[in-house]
Design brief:
The complex is a heterodimer of chains A (410) and B (139). Chain A has 15 helices and 14 strands. By secondary structure, chain A is an alpha/beta fold. Chain A folds into 3 domains: 161 residues, 2-Layer Sandwich (Aconitase, domain 3), CATH 3.30.499; 104 residues; 128 residues, Aconitase, domain 3, CATH 3.30.499. The longest helix of chain A is centred in the first third of the chain and has 17 residues. Chain A starts with 7 loop residues before the first helix and ends in a 13-residue tail after the last helix. Classes of the chains: A alpha/beta (410), B alpha/beta (139).
Chain lengths: 410, 139
Amino acid sequence: MLAGDEGPAASVAMEIVLHSARMTGATALLDISNAHIDGCLYHGMASIEFAELLSAGGGTVRVPTTLNVSSLDLLHPDLYRGDDQTRSEARRLMDVYVDLGCEPTWTCAPYQLPSRPGFGEHIAWAESNAVVFANSVLGARTGRYGDFFDIAAAITGRVPAAGLHLDENRAGTTVVDVGRLPPTLLETDAFYPVLGHLLGKNVSGIPALVGIPPSVTEDRLKAVGAAAASSGDLAMFHVVAVTPEAPTLESALGGRGSRKELLVTAEMVTTARKELSTTGDDSLGAVSLGTPHYSATELRRLVDILDGRRISDRIDCFVSTSRDTLGEIEADRLDIHLSDAGIELVVDTCTYVTPILRDVDGAVMTDSAKWAYYAPGNLGVDVVFGSVEDCVESAVAGEIRRDEGIWRYG
Amino acid sequence: MAEIEGTPLFTGSARGRLLVLDEPISFWGGVDHSNGTITDFRHPQHGETVTDRILAMPSGRGSSSSSSVFAELIRKGVAPNGVILGESDEILVLGAIVGELLYKRICPFLLVTPTDYAGLATGAMISIDNDRLLVERSG
């Protein structure tokens, strides 16, 4: 492949995979069963020139390959408020990746697709939140891959036998105990993005969480991973008695014991929560939900919380999801309920990677720690983090409302 | 003049004034790819530019899109001249590999030990030559 007998694109792709193998000290390559590409989000002409080099060189993926969010919502093109040149270049990039054989899924939550990989599969996923979810919740095995490597792995079907692909690197390295926090807090959705933010800030390596209720949902674990991979470089976590490689603390630690421990205190939660807001003002400009892309369950819950109410005319409220999930909820007419409530559904992209928000007067409220982390820098907005209930109540009222009760304890 | 040996993650030669980042940065969302300015307002070096510097980072962080942003910095000619890392980071190095592939410009990456990393100070004039660092004069 390297010699070019499978075409110039396969040769370039293999060169990239082998460079990565040398960097990681790997002496062998592994076959993968699946890839997820982050490189389809437009970051300038270098993105296009690389993808077109592969396309011109006869590149085609040899494993099922999903695509991450792009810069455009192809189903609701009017939402895009950027310039026409960027729009056409972003579209050109999307088309090249589809030409390379990737599936036009356009989602940062490929683990919510029916085709998601299973336990023990070697895969090559990019997009930091997807990497954490795959390793932690699915028990599939991927490195924390980035743009360019992702498509190189998909074209070669190989990755270096290194890092999280190997048993010995998947053991927990820090025991993180949340068991001293009030049980009511552990049953609150909004706790989980805050926990993730705190983990990213305070833990390097692989946290093994103890004290999380066994009833914790995939949506809550998704929030932990997305937040931790934004504030830090987390690629995997264990939740003892929940995630597949952690039936017991001992197994989560790979039988080797752990030297580091972190006891999560109420003060740490308060600090982490504060860090996710940039203003204390009550003035609300917009609400953004769905980072990572909302699951069908989260969309149903949003409709339940709205309970037939309409949001304030002064407020824009966006919720991002995948076109696949949109198709799923259309069967129950949930999309109609949301649009009747004044909420705009965004698919194929996300409100913090591309210009969708109108000029806002006031802060943007979100239930996502990842959105709260990146949007102020990307969009130049103030952000207020709150629960999804807070976000809905605020959108209806037209001003920021936060229920402090869920955070007030002991 | 001090000489430090390291592990080349992307081989090449470069020279420039050192900028030591107190914290890791995500290039995506943290550095403006049109001009090399650090835009992450939470970062201690917010407002500094990475362009033409030898950039020292304790480790990589955050988004997988940082490879694309790094390659775009190289395309626009506003990338660092070279990068010194305290911990290996494949995502950023990929940006340099693709930058060289597409634009024939080399931005070398060198991995150094934590002890050597701790001795680096902003302002020093530094050369990277494949597997070694030469601190020509301190800031």
